[in-house]
TrEMBL record, chain A:
Belongs to the ABC transporter superfamily. One of its GO terms (biological process) is transmembrane transport. PROSITE patterns: ABC_TRANSPORTER_1 (PS00211), ABC_TRANSPORTER_2 (PS50893). It comes from Paludibacterium purpuratum. This is Oligopeptide transport system ATP-binding protein. SUPFAM superfamilies: P-loop containing nucleoside triphosphate hydrolases.
TrEMBL record, chain B:
Residues 99-288 form the ABC transmembrane type-1 domain. The keyword Transmembrane helix applies. Belongs to the binding-protein-dependent transport system permease family. One of its GO terms (cellular component) is plasma membrane. This is Dipeptide transport system permease protein. One of its GO terms (molecular function) is dipeptide transmembrane transporter activity. It comes from Paludibacterium purpuratum. SUPFAM superfamilies: MetI-like. InterPro entries: BP-dependent_transpt_permease, MetI-like, MetI-like_sf, OppC_N. Coiled coil: none annotated. PROSITE patterns: ABC_TM1. It holds the Pfam family BPD_transp_1. It is found in: Cell membrane. The chain crosses the membrane at residues 33-54, 101-127, 147-172, 193-214, 220-245, 266-287.
Amino acid sequence: MSEAQQPILSVRNVKVHFQVAHGDSAWPWAAKKTLKAVDGVSFDLYPGETLGVVGESGCGKSTLSRAILNLIPATDGEIVWMGKDLRKGDARDWHRVRRDIQMIFQDPLASLNPRMTVAQIIAEPLRTHRPELGDTEVMARVRKMMKRVGLTEQQINRYPHEFSGGQCQRIGIARALILEPKLIICDEPVSALDVSIQAQIINLLKELQREMGLSLIFIAHDLAVVKHISDRILVMYLGREMELAGKHALYDNPTHPYTQALLSAIPFPDPERERHKTIQLLAGDLPSPINPPSGCVFRTRCPQAQERCAKEPTKLHRVDDKTQCSCLLV
Amino acid sequence: MTTQVQMSAEDKALAYPSPLKEFWQGFSYNKGAVMGLVFLAVVVVAALFAPWVAPYNPIDQYRDFMLTPPSWADGGTAKFLLGTDEIGRDMLSRLIYGARLSLLIGLSAVLSSLIPGIILGLLAAFYPKVLGPLIMRVMDVMMALPSLLLAIAIVAILGPSMLNTIIAISVVSLPGYVRLVRASAMTELNRDYVTAARVAGAGTLRLMFVTVLPNCMAPLIVHATMSFSSAILDAAALGFLGMGVQPPSAEWGAMLSSARDYIERAWWVVSWPGLTILLSVLAINLIGDGLRDALDPKLKRAA
């Protein structure tokens, strides 16, 4: 993961804005407000790397992941995949890219078609992307992939509702991997699972990543999980980037006040330290993304906010070789 | 177990019950559905082989036996098992021949509104910006008109015949299907598995008919079986107004409406077609119920 490598995915200043009817005037001619779900996010992803994305609910993590796959079209910015700007491409380009970028979903059962058997679900990407493969070849690959993710062959004709959450997520992983993609976007893949199952799934993902040389974008709100799997971590707040840093740099030495507040909320597995630690509580609620604060979006809840935070726009800037931060005071 | 060991990996998949057998297992678990299927099968066989099954020609009039009661009642004769109608036609023969027309009308009216209904409903759900509202407003206009009035208008324009009756009935029942399909498709479209299919590279057609449609089938099957019965009754109403199947052809609905005048004097004239319609509709609804359960993997008995 040397910096000399070419990034496989470069996201440059991506914005996803929605036009929403505002509050009490839902008339079609009423002026629409702009909801800035993702507002200018940039990062690079290198082959074999795992980028963790954290942030509280509604900060645009999922929207960002869907924008990368064009499930929700980005409003502005560049999404460069292997040197090609996808936003300038047409539907056929997207179709080709989806062979390389696959996704794992939060709710394992809801992400599987209830009317299809496991074999049909796992084979679906092959049938749409590789129609030239014959039936026997498809089934052979499905069997191999099922074994690889820890399912047994006897389960091949079962339906999703006959499986537990962890098994369903394994089916989802098998479906994502069957095309041998280069990047998998995991949208909170373990937050719906038990802790013991979480560990199994995370370890499976890590194993598969090592074997197949995958890159991962791993979205989560559980900081411990993110720390376990990620190489670098992107902290988002209200659709913007707060901090982008290597995981050790971020956990040992958080630079942004928001990251510091997030990290202070992680419980220690040591009662003595746990009793004496100070949690930085953030005052107030998350501001509305329809009407974000001026300057730094975090300033309304920031314990260190100063006058200039309201005036100057923030931008991710390099603090040291591992860390980029958007705080004006750092 | 020994047989399983001998099987190769390919044969193992075949060891599961075939889809047809699996379907029958699910279906036969529902006893009501099986009874409905048996009844409908009897009616269909009788309709198909009507010339051999029916004792008389349905339009032959036996003027000496007008309004003869059924054979077991006072004044009934063994010649006319279910009695005769007001101009001496054998009720049983008319019911058997009537099954041909009534089932044909019901089935073709349902199919010719179900298929366009599914297509229009899916289009409305998949293109919610322009095409969707357009389709739905047209459907609203059709729903705003009283259905029988619209059917009469259509038959009046096209001219009375059986084909035009079917067309009129299917046009009238189209909005119900479109709304139903659109509503359930729109809920399904927001589900994660549809997004997953999109990520897996499914095109719009595949999304429509492979991903979304099978998950919308439950309410559709129920609605289709229900509208089968209302199609028969609508055809009867049109016939009553002289715009449906023309006399002397035997048709259950027409038999029912033409016998109304004798309801006090000769209960059998109106009861037999009514009962036949009731039982067929019940049978079809039961079959629909069984179909819905058998096609839903979640309700399947564990194999």
